[in-house]
UniProtKB/TrEMBL annotation:
The gene is parC. Residues 720-746 are annotated as: Disordered. Residues 43-506 form the Topo IIA-type catalytic domain. The keyword Repressor does not apply. CDD domains: TOP4c. It comes from the Bacteria. It comes from Paeniroseomonas aquatica. This is DNA topoisomerase 4 subunit A. Topoisomerase IV is essential for chromosome segregation. It relaxes supercoiled DNA. Performs the decatenation events required during the replication of a circular DNA molecule. It catalyses: ATP-dependent breakage, passage and rejoining of double-stranded DNA. It is an enzyme of class 5 (isomerase).
Length: 746
């Protein structure tokens, strides 16, 4: 037998074996698992907006008669009934579904009225199910309305002992009103909550105008309506595209206000936060950023919430623009959150697909039409049965003496009644079951009134069944009642503010990072450290024995520092990553990959617009931009390509129009800077020629200001440099008398 063929029992058979390809068997079983996850766990039904576990919860509570007017029952009892009769899964998952339907910060229109600890907006969990109690809300009651009138199909439960509804009648637009989230196999759904009154208005628009476009429907639905409020800042075009395609997202910001304090000071109070954001984690996130000094405009954050959200933000000072402060928080924290839209649902045929807003509302209306027809047919059947019985009763009153005689004297009174008065078996049984007290004259009048009333109702319902226009008018009336019940008042008023796109606030990105002045100290032996503040030039600095100062650079804590080494490489150091304090610091070789033979040639703060003159000891060099010196890796960036046996000799800022180069042979050459090319990497051009030795030093200066050099503590300037002026790559002449014997300009 091939390796990919295994012996497996046939599907649905507990015994026997059959040969099948392993790939085919795995594919078959994984597909069954995937379809089960998609249809029976993760995706809601477009008609009632419920997943199986939620539907079973509501049905079980309905069976327990936990209507809004009834008392509460322990959640453990409810979960037990659901798990034992309808939903053979873990009790924790069932209880979590129950809890979420009871949380007013998670569900826009809670389906469960909870009593006890059902969690909070901070993200705390609910109490154990043995401590909490629940019953249905009026919204859930609307979802179940008509379920006992043959409005929907029922199916057997998993063990065949009970019946459960395939879908609820759903007089409430639950899918969009409460939303849904779920991850299935290969697909997911994410539907934000909406305002029920607005949904009903859009549904009425669709009934009045079946060809209504998404744009026309959005006149009634400006966007989602989250239970936690907030401010919707998405553009109208993006909202329309999202509802048109069924895919998109909505940006929601916290709602805030400025509260004035004493002497011009103020605080910012946030009283609404974005949907699905845990308040405690949000405050923890802000506190972490404050500790990392990434929110320079914010001084402190406090949580003064009770059952109402109240987060207090204190700015660093009274001059900070509150809008700019909030903009920094929106960019860096979950004070702004993006809620995705993925209208992936099961349609009326139980097929998963992504729908647009119009399709979803159309599917709900079509379901309400089916429910109306089924309830009407159920009512007509009940009226017909009752009229049949009432017709028999009226015959009794018209022939009372004969009926009494038959009942008293006939051996088979039912057959005799049916034969004598042409009654049906149902009528005959009803007459024989009558009590003597029902033979009163008053009772006859009641029966006639009931018969007249039912006959009138029957004609009205038959007229309804014969006219589609009347049926849609009836559905519109039902939706209008739903809008009145759930579209206004504390529960129905819109909570999420909408309107035009928020004006953009231009913020300097540098405002997000706190800066402080520092002095970066590099020793001769390659130890580096940073001290707070800009130290004076004569400040006393300590070093290890035998070590001294190489370079001291004034910088900001957010700067990048360039280190140019004798190997021709440029290295980048972040000032914020340097060791702080008055100690010896840390060897540079631990921060960048330099060998012991390499020495630091230049050390300076990175400046984007600056240019630098770099040259090797053989006298070749070029100009390089500051950005070309930045290296992203510890290994650095090879800028100056060196010949074997040579090393970098110069890296100086090029500010001016003239170059002065000095050889080890003590020859000075001055030539225009324009003769030096700009390059990002390479060997460059010959700056000065030598018979022996190489380049000692170079400097870029402004010709009008003259060439200067330091002689001891004095600064000497040579205004007339014409004796040494020439072209690049020539030998040059001896420098002026008094030039330093070190062959250095500085």
């Amino acid at each position: 037998m091939p390796d990919d063929i295994k012996t497996l029992p046939p599907a649905g058979d507990s015994g026997g074996t059959r040969d099948t390809h392993l790939a085919a068997a795995l594919s078959e079983r994984y597909l069954a698992y995937a379809m089960s996850t998609i249809m029976s766990r993760s995706l809601p039904d477009v008609r009632d907006g419920l997943k199986p576990v939620h539907r079973r919860l509501l049905w079980a509570m309905h069976q327990l008669k936990l209507d809004p007017a009834a008392g509460f029952k322990k959640c453990a009892r409810i979960v037990g009934d659901v798990m034992g009769k309808y939903h053979p899964h873990g009790d924790s998952s069932i209880y979590e579904a129950l809890v979420r339907q009871a949380q007013d910060f998670a569900a826009r229109y809670p389906l469960v009225d909870g009593q006890g600890n059902f969690g909070n907006i901070d993200g705390d969990n609910a109490a154990a199910m043995r401590y909490t109690e629940a019953r249905l809300t009026t919204v859930a009651e609307a979802l179940l309305a008509g379920i006992d009138e043959n409005a929907v199909d029922f199916r057997q439960t998993y063990d065949g002992e009970e019946q459960e509804p395939v879908v609820l009648p759903a007089a409430f637009p639950n899918l969009l009103a409460n939303g849904a989230t779920g991850i299935a196999v290969g697909m997911a759904t994410s539907i934000p909550p909406h305002n029920a009154g607005e949904l009903c208005g859009a549904a009425l628009e669709l009934i009045a105008n079946p060809a209504a476009t998404t744009t026309e429907l959005l006149k009634h639905i400006p966007g989602p309506d989250f239970p936690t409020g907030g401010v919707l800042i998405e553009s109208p075009e993006a909202i329309r595209d999202a509802y048109e395609t069924g895919r998109g997202g909505f940006r929601v910001r916290a709602k805030w206000q400025r509260v004035e304090g004493k002497l011009g000071a103020y605080t910012i109070v946030v009283d609404e936060i974005p949907y699905q954001v845990a308040k405690a984690k949000l405050i923890e996130q802000v506190a972490q950023l404050l500790e990392e000094k990434k929110l320079p405009l914010l001084a402190d954050i406090r949580d003064e919430s009770t059952d109402v959200v109240r987060i207090v933000l204190e700015p660093k000072n009274r001059n900070i623009d509150p809008a700019m402060l909030m903009e920094t928080l929106f960019r860096a924290t979950q004070f702004e959150n993006r809620i995705p839209l993925n209208l992936n649902v099961l349609d009326a045929d139980r097929t998963p697909r992504v729908m647009g807003l119009r399709e979803v509302l159309r599917a709900w209306l079509d379901h309400r039409h089916v429910v109306l027809v089924r309830r009407t047919e159920h009512r007509l059947a009940a009226i017909a049965r009752r009229l049949e019985i009432l017709g028999g009763f009226l015959i009794v009153y018209l022939n009372l003496d004969e009926v009494i005689r038959i009942v008293r004297e006939e051996d088979k009174p039912k057959e005799a009644l049916m034969r004598t008065f042409e009654l049906t078996e149902v009528q005959a049984n009803a007459i024989l079951d009558m009590r003597l007290r029902s033979l009163r004259k008053l009772e006859e009048m009641e029966i006639r009134r009931e018969h007249t009333k039912l006959t009138k109702e029957q004609k009205a319902l038959q007229g309804l069944m014969s006219s589609e226009t009347k049926r849609w008018a009836a559905i519109a009336a039902e939706i209008e009642e739903t809008r009145k019940a759930f579209g206004s008042g504390p529960l129905g008023n819109r909570r999420t503010a909408t309107g035009s796109l928020q004006p953009s606030i231009v913020i300097d990105e540098n405002a997000f990072v706190e800066r402080e002045p520092i002095t970066v100290i590099l020793s001769e032996k390659g130890w580096i450290r940073a001290q707070k503040g800009h130290l004076a030039a004569d400040a006393e600095l300590r070093f290890k024995e035998g070590d001294g100062l190489h370079t001291a650079v004034h910088a900001q804590s957010t700067d990048r520092l360039i280190l140019f080494a004798t190997n021709g490489k440029a290295y980048t150091l972040k000032a914020e990553a340097l060791p702080r304090g008055r100690g010896d610091g840390q060897p540079v070789r631990l921060l960048v990959e330099m060998t012991n033979e390499d020495a630091v040639l230049a050390f300076f703060v990175h400046a984007e617009a600056a240019r630098y003159l770099v040259a090797a000891s053989d006298g070749k060099g070029f100009l390089v931009a500051g950005d070309d010196l930045v290296a992203e890796k510890r290994t650095g960036k090879q800028v100056l390509v060196l010949e074997p046996g040579r090393e970098a000799a110069v890296c100086k800022r090029a500010e001016g129009d003239t170059v002065a180069v000095l050889g080890e042979n003590r020859k000075l050459l001055v030539f225009p800077l324009e003769q030096v090319p700009d390059m990002a990497r390479g060997r460059g051009v010959q700056l000065q020629s030598y018979k022996d030795g190489g380049l000692a030093d170079a400097k870029v200066f402004t010709r009008k200001e003259g060439l200067s050099w330091r002689l001891g503590d004095r600064l000497r300037t040579e205004a007339d440099t014409s004796p040494w002026r020439g072209n690049r790559a020539t030998a040059g002449k001896l420098p002026p008398n008094g030039f330093p014997k070190s062959n250095r300009f500085e």
